[in-house]
Fold this protein.
Amino acid sequence: MSKVLVAYFSKTGEQYGVGTITKGNTAIAAEIIAEKTGGDLFEIKVVNDNYPDTYNPLVQYAKVEKQKNARPEIVGEVSNIGEYDTIFLGYPNWWADMPMPVYTFLDKYDLSGKTVHNFCTHEGSGGVHREDFTMYGHIAQNDREQAKEKISEWLKSLGF
Ligand SMILES: Cc1cc2nc3c(=O)[nH]c(=O)nc-3n(C[C@H](O)[C@H](O)[C@H](O)COP(=O)(O)O)c2cc1C
């Protein structure tokens, strides 16, 4: 049996097309994946969380962070990273890219030799790094049955 880690970044507050949310779209997808694979969840959160909770200011903030190619410090450690042989890595599409804290995560851990499946939520552009799986954020948020079905199909194709 392979040991699975589901690491993800996701943002609550006001998001595109879904109003103000208390659980992020990607977080919902990540939880479904963890439930169906028996994986452990790790949320990629920044230490100094200055992300605005309103949409347009967030979009501007993220633009600057991307322009700076920032590596915001993230909270906590996956101390047992060596035990995982399969990693699901999830994030929203931010400016046709991954949020910068996901780069911090990737800089921090050596995932070579592990099987990595990346997934992304978005609102129309689709994925950003040849993701294995993409989904509209509002579907994860508002139609969990459909989200579960699509994710199950994907996981089945991977052998879960
Ligand atoms: C800063 C920012 C930039 C975004 N850029 C894009 C984009 O380029 N293309 C797209 O389809 N959606 C974009 N979106 C929409 C998000 O990808 C989408 O709402 C996603 O599901 C949010 O996931 P989360 O709730 O897990 O953070 C953007 C959202 C934000 C906040």
In short: Residues 4-157 form a domain with the Rossmann fold fold (CATH 3.40.50.360). The mean pLDDT is 97.
